[in-house]
Design a protein that fits this description.
The structure is a single chain. The chain has helices at 14-19, 55-64, 69-74, 77-101, 130-158, and strands spanning 3-4, 8-12, 27-31, 35-36, 46-47, 50-51, 111-115, 121-125. By secondary structure, the protein is α+β, with helices and mostly antiparallel strands.
Amino acid sequence: MVQCSFNGKCFFDPLLYYNSKKTQPYQTCICDEGWVTLPNSKKDDVMCCYKQKSQFMAFLLEFLFGFGFGHFYIGNYFMGSLKCCTYIFICCVSYLIIFCFCIKNDRHSSFKYERTNANETVVKFYSSPLSYKIFNAILISCILVYVIWQMTDIFMFGLNFFNDGNDVPLFPW
């Protein structure tokens, strides 16, 4: 016998019972808006017992905060953790690059002032070492990849592409 929760309406469907050659119960539930039956539930479980996550809330969290907050909200903890750790890694790498390689001192300055005689000072430009350019290119590439990933996630939340952690579609806006 099918049990409906208070989030749905039960009714008898003899046609379903006879069409299934008497293998399915003739009682079924129609869930209220925003409520579903979990796809992995057994026949004896209560139907209409799971409230869907909101697509709007997931989109808003990902759009405003990023860092995987939308994924955490829908219960996709692996993707949320991966995105958050990637952001933290990029921040740490960028600060490391700034601290170790890009702090200007007299020895690594791009501009050097040289005195040719007592009254003249000549400013000469020296290009930065190759290591600065390589690390800056890596940093810019990492930031670009993260921004593309963030924009893709926002777009996919907007299209309601993701399911929540229980493999239930998000409640559309």
